Amino acid sequence: MTTTTPTLPPVDFAARLSGRAQRMTVSAIRELLKLTQRPDIISFAGGLPAPELFPLADIRTAANAVLDRYGPAAVQYGTTEGHLPLREWIAARTPGLTPAHVQIVTGSQQGLDLLGKILIDEGDVVLVEAPTYLGALQSFQPYGPRYVDLPTDEHGIDVDALETVLKATPAKLLYAIPNFQNPTGRTLSLERRRRLVELTAQYGVLVLEDDPYGKLRFRGEDLPSLYEIALELAGGDPEGSHVIYSGSFSKTLVPGLRDAWVQAAHPVIEKLVQAKQGADLHTPIFNQMIITELVGEVLPRQVELVKKAYGERARDMVARIEQHFPAGVDFTTPEGGMFLWVTLPEGLDTTELFPRALERGVAYVPGRPFYARGGGANTMRLSYSNATPAQIDSGIRALGETIRGALD
Hints:
By secondary structure, the chain is α/β, with parallel strands linked by helices.
């Protein structure tokens, strides 16, 4: 007697995925980074902090101090809200804020995802800068928003256009990066900050302020955050602020510890806690304790170190662009952060240009993925944070030659 092994029918996984999963997209930047790992490629693509600036010795000392002080508790489960001393330190930076208004998240990217989960329903209108941070679009997309682009210029969001949009469109949320915006490097002016906060309050629109780069100003004067302006208009009461603030230690200390936070009114924080419980229970407590050891003395020193280095690299890149790029190419001159934005003459497509740039040994991020509703074919993002002067010189020279070749 012979037996046959039953053959299982093929599984149509695509048909069984949720609508939310089918709306998920691959990060264009992450895919590009796979192409730039060759040692001969000079990459201005990834927004990577400079690893040679990481305070490794301080982190090692802090880790040992945490283990000595807390013992097994340093590697035990922790509270969802986050390590209380760290939340206290964050709250103390803003008058009127309490630890109860602060939620620790595992990187600001998780914060964006969880905020999208608790704030965005299918079809809700979400206002975004054109262009805006690709990672935010990727986080929000599964929740089914309807994006409305806000025009921008060298001073950030065009608030006159914002007012026109708000009069015509019932929006749920406005997502903005006021400081050294990703991808453009632009900074929203003080006048526009105040008007944006006033307009969104008037029309009942929540504002999500993403501020991973705010401490990295290397030129000009510091400006108040949207959250601080809203808090002032609310009489200092965090419960009256319609602005939700997202901050991070990834760009000032190190990205690998994945420590960031959200500060907001209690109703938002309460739901954020519940969403995080379902996501990962809590951010690793050991990492939070290490960060807490570093914020007193190491963080201020590290911020100054990073600002100086990035300022020098940004000035170097701007000078090389002026030297090597052809006429008709526009670019931003950032006051801080990690990026600048390049706009090529109409008719050029930076996605099509990318393989030619790789052949010359240089990489960037094409601008199109940063537009929620399409556009930006002739734009690109360049990061100067993780590049040496020699790399900036030869990389920008090669990129200029690539652009000239496309124009010929």
